[in-house]
């Protein structure tokens, strides 16, 4: 079938939007393994924000002008992604969500350069100079960031005290580290000691003074104006801000009350499954007795960080071996496992994943938090691994990079929300159960704890940001579903800092499961599970409405 004029228009638009996004954020290019300008940091000035909005307005207008006549399915997906992404970007700017997130203990500017050091190759003289130019650009970058923080203060759009205190602790920790031991210097991918010494000098000259400037601002004037109530509900027009955050993360306009009730309903259902396992293991209907026995078992924790990593690698190998039962295609990139860096492990989630580099120079990487090792129970570890690695994020995201789709969809599909990707990870935990990957009932119990955890996210995120919950209530609810205290606090504080993000998991999982059930009902005994999965992740990450409408067309009944 020949390419139509509308197909060509979509391709040209997608290419333009993609190039503009990379130019707007060369840092993002580095994280993807794409060299745009590895000697520059992002321009985060107000002028750059306005210019970015104008680019999205032009993209929205151009996408709206492309009709369906002669449009292929693939082009239709691309066009609709641009329309959704542009709409979200404009809405976020309308409500100045950049000010809402200006102070962020989870993923703020304090994490930027250590991450860059780990991702940016500086092993040759030319590459080293690029990296050093980036460090030299940090004062200008921070000037714009501090201007944004001050504007947020002036408008009364400040972060919660919880986030501010965590950020202060991070900045104090960074400020206390000698330049030669800085996470930037230690992570720098350089050729030798002489080159690392130049990085140390740059940290001393360009970075450390800016960290101290930021600390002085946050610890001083900003701290005095931060929010005592953690939720967005306490901000002017907080309801609208939360609605925007929810749409930005999920791609959907969702009602907080309905989400809250869905979370409670799912939690109750999962409790029923957990009681079945409790009875099987001799604890009657007492879920807490089973959880207590599991957590009191000294063999249920790894003796060392190295042993924990080894256990994870074993689970990845087992999942890889079993995946052929339900998948017909696999990503080529391997999946590595690394511990979360010490400088941020106290505030980091239990696990997360980074996609492979586009050029093949870096594998997919599953980061596991080894902080407070006695609280990292092995019975819960397997489900996390299947979520983050195989068949979860690694399968979906690494494969996406290998697809013959526009670069925009391969690398920037998140502009339509993250609910499909996170939903796929959560769906994969259940899929692992179908594959018989859990070693025993206790590991299945750990999986159900994880499922309950994501259901609880619907409850706590909406509770905090829409219904005026305080932090203690959020922490208590997360403990009730089985999280250790340290993780319950980290998780709750994460929801406070990232409104709406925690909704993606259950919202996405429910959409995938709902679509699968509909196709299974349609096809009966002819249902092809491999075809379903290959199509589900074989078109890249999709905005949820597109996924639900397109999947039945792709997965056709067998003749």
Report on the structure:
With 559 residues, this protein is mainly alpha-helical. It has three domains: 1-95, Methane Monooxygenase Hydroxylase, Chain G, domain 1 (Up-down Bundle); 102-228, no CATH class; 248-510, no CATH class. The protein contains 25 helices and five strands. It is globular and about 65 Å long.
Summarize the structure.
The chain is mainly α and 559 residues long.
SSE layout and pairing:
Layout: H1 5-24, H2 26-32, H3 46-64, H4 73-94, H5 97-100, H6 112-119, E1 121-122, H7 125-136, H8 138-155, H9 161-176, H10 183-187, E2 189-190, H11 193-225, H12 238-250, H13 256-280, H14 287-296, H15 305-322, E3 335-339, E4 351-354, E5 364-368, H16 381-388, H17 393-402, H18 407-412, H19 419-434, H20 441-466, H21 471-480, H22 485-497, H23 504-523, H24 529-536, H25 544-554
Parallel strand pairs: 1-2, 3-5
Antiparallel strand pairs: 4-5
Helix pairs in contact: 1-3, 1-4, 3-4, 4-12, 7-11, 8-11, 9-11, 13-20, 15-16, 16-19, 16-20, 19-20, 19-23, 20-21, 21-22, 23-25
Mean pLDDT: 93
Strand content: under 5%
**In angstroms, what separates the terminal alpha carbons?**
24 Å
Q: Helical segment tally? A: 25
* Order of strands, widest sheet: 3-5-4
Q: How many DSSP E strands? A: 5
Helix content: 55-70%
Structural class: mainly alpha
Principal-axes geometry comes out as globular
| Low-pLDDT regions | none
How can the largest sheet be summarized?
3 strands, mixed
Output the helix-strand order.
HHHHHHEHHHHEHHHHHEEEHHHHHHHHHH
User: What gyration radius follows from the Cα positions, in whole Å?
Assistant: 23 Å
Tally of structural domains: 3
